[in-house]
Amino acid sequence: MAAPQTTTGSSPLSQPVTMLWGVGGERAKQLARLDIRTIEDLLLHKPRRHEDRRNFRAIKELQIGEAATVRGKIIAAGVKRWRQGERALFEFVLDDGSAHLHCRWWQAQPWMEEYFATGREFLVFGKPESLRPRTIDHPETELVEEGVESFVHFNRIVPIYPLTEGLQQRWLRGLMWRTLEKFVAASRESAANLSERVNVDEKLAALARDAATLPSRANAIHMLHFPEALDDTEIARKRLALDEFVALQSQIQARRNNFETRAQALPCAGDNRLIKPFLAGLGFKLTGAQTRVLREIRAAMGGAHPMRRLLQGDVGSGKTAVAACTALMALESGFNVALMAPTEILAEQHFRNFAGWLEPLGVRVELQTGSRKTGVDVLRFACSVKQQGTAPPALDATRNTQHASLFVGTHALLTASFDLPNLGLVIIDEQHKFGVAQREQLVRKGRYPHLLVMTATPIPRTLGLTLYGDLDLSVIDELPPGRGRLKTFVRFTDALPKVWSFIREKLAAGRQAYVVYPRVEDNVDGMKAVTKEFDNLQAKLAPFRVGLLHGRLGGREKEAVMAAFRANTVNVLLATSLIEVGVDVPNATVMLIENAEAFGLAQLHQLRGRIGRGEHESYCILISDAKKPESRSRLQVLEETNDGFRIAEADLKLRGPGELLGQQQSGLPRFRFGDLATDLDLIRRAREIVAAR
Ligand code: ADP
Ligand code: MG
To answer: Which of 86, 217, 363, 509 satisfies CB 3.0 to 4.6 Å to 358 for a cystine?
Structure first.
C-alpha cells in the first residue's frame, strides 16, 4: 500500500492565499479573520447556506415569515431621522415589476446611501415582517453587476459564505470560483489526489458500495460550493467529513502500531490464587456480563502487547468488582497496580473497598491523594497483616514479587516525585474526567504497563471510535440482579412542598436522601446560596440530620461527612454536583436535583446513578422551572429511559461532545465537516479504509 501522503510546503494547496490573483495584503488580512490562510483553507471554507438563483420569487408572492430571494431595482432610498443626532433608519424600496418591497436597517451606516443608490439592481434575501407595505428588516443584499463572471452568480445554485467586515459576498464567490477552476477542475480531470494523507478516492473506488454513493474529493469540493441540486451539499459534506475521519483514524492507528511494535507486554494474566478467595468472599456472584468482560481482560493481559482497553458500563453495572479482579490478575503475577480516580472522595472510597477486599489476601493497598499520603497506610497494612497472622512485609515490599501493592489515588499519583516501581497495570476510573494526556502520563510511570480505563458516561459509538479509537472495548451490558426500581419525575418548584413531605416519609422509613444543587460554589455568592440552603434544609427536615458536601471542603472534612452519611448518622446529604461520580451508599433511595436544567442529561443520569443501588425502590425528582417545551422534553428523556447509551446519544445531539464529556476532555479534534452526533456510519467507513491499508 502507498505510504501516507502529507501536505508539504511544496503542495499547491498549502500555498498562501496571497499567490491568488486579486488577493493582496488587505484581502489576506480579511481572509485570515475567517481562518483562511492557505488555498486549501479557502477551498474548505464552508458556505453557510445556498441560494437557488435559477428562479426568483416575485415580490407580489412574498409570504410573512418565509425566507425568499427577490431581484429588483431600487426606486427610492433614504435615511429617516427622528430627531437631530438620534438613531437613524435607512430604507430603500425595491421594484421587480410585480410589487414594491421596503428594506429597512434600524442603524443607518454612512456607506448605505451611496451603495444602495436609486437605479441599482439588487438581490435581496430575508423574511418579510409585514405585507402592508411589504417589508423586510435587515435583509442580506447583493449588488447585481453585469460582467464577465455573471454566470457564477446567477442562473445557478450559489453559495452564501460567512463573511467578515469589508469582504463582499460576490467578491468571495468570484475568488472561490476562480480558485476551484484553477486547482480543482484540473484535478477532477486527472483524478489526482486532493486528499491529504491517505488516498481515500482510491479506497472508495475499491469499496464498490461507496464508489456508488460518494464522489471523489475533488468533486465533493466543487459540489460543496456550486452544487447542481441542493441535496448535493450534504453529499459533499459527507465526503469531506470522511476525509477528516480517515485522517484522525490514521493518527490513532499509527499511535497504536507504534506502541505495539515497541512494547512487549508484561505477563499479567495471573494464576487465580488471589481471585478465587476474593470472589468467594465478595458476597455476590458476578453477572454474566462481568464474567465475560473478565475473560476478555484476562486474554488481553496475557497477550503479546500491553492491553489498552476501555471498560464501559452504565452506572451501577459493577465496574469496581471487575477492576478489582483485573488488579488481582496483575498482583498475582507479581506486579504493582495503580488505580486513579478523579476526586478525593472517590479515591477514598476505592481505597476503603479495595483495602477491605485485598488486605486480607495479603496485598498492600496504599492511598495517594492531595491530602493523604501513603505513609499512614503502611502502618495500617502492618496491623492488618498481623491480624491475619502472616509475617510483616519486608521494607522493600513494593519490589518484592511476593508482595505486590495496589496504589489508589487521585491525580496526585501523577506527581513526578511519586515513584511507581514494577508497574504492571494502570486502571483509570471515570476516564472522561481526565484528559488523554493525563492517562498517558500515568502509563509512562511504568514500562508499558497494561491499561484499563473505565467510564460510566456511556459513550456514544461515534465518540468511542474517535476519542477512544486506540483502545479495545469491553462492555458490561447488564445490571446486577435484585436492584430496586428507579423512577424519575420532572417537576416545577411549586411541587416542592409535596416532594419534601415525601422525602420525610422515606427518611422516617430509614432510607436516606441526596439533595443536589448545581455547581454554584465557584464564587462567594454561590457559596452563600449553598450555606443558606443548608440552613433551610436543616430547619425543614429536623429532626433528621443533614450533611453538607461541596468542593471547598478539605479532604478530611469531606471524608468525615461521607463517613457519617455512610453510617446513616447523617440522613440527608446536600451536595453540589461533586457526588456525581462513583459514590456508593445503597441505603440512599431519594435524590432531589434543583435547577435540573443546568445539568447535561448524561450528568443527571450519572447523578441519579447514586440511588437505585440497594433493594429498595428509588426516586429521582428533577426540579426545574424551565418552561420552554424543548427544555422540558429534554429532561423528560430521563423520565422515559434508564438506558445510559440512549441518554448519552440524546445529550450528544443536544449539547455536543464538549458538554457531554466535560471541559477536561482535551483529546477531541475539531471538525469542519464531521459531526460526531450523526456520522457513525462515516466513522465506521473511515476505520475500514484505514484498516485496509
Ligand atoms: P459502577 O459500575 O457504577 O462503578 P459499582 O462497581 O459501584 O458500579 O457497583 C454498584 C453496586 O453494585 C455496588 O454496591 C456493588 O457492590 C454492587 N455489585 C457489583 N456487582 C454485583 C453483582 N454481580 N451482584 C450484585 N451486586 C453487585
Ligand atoms: Mg464506579
So the answer is: 363
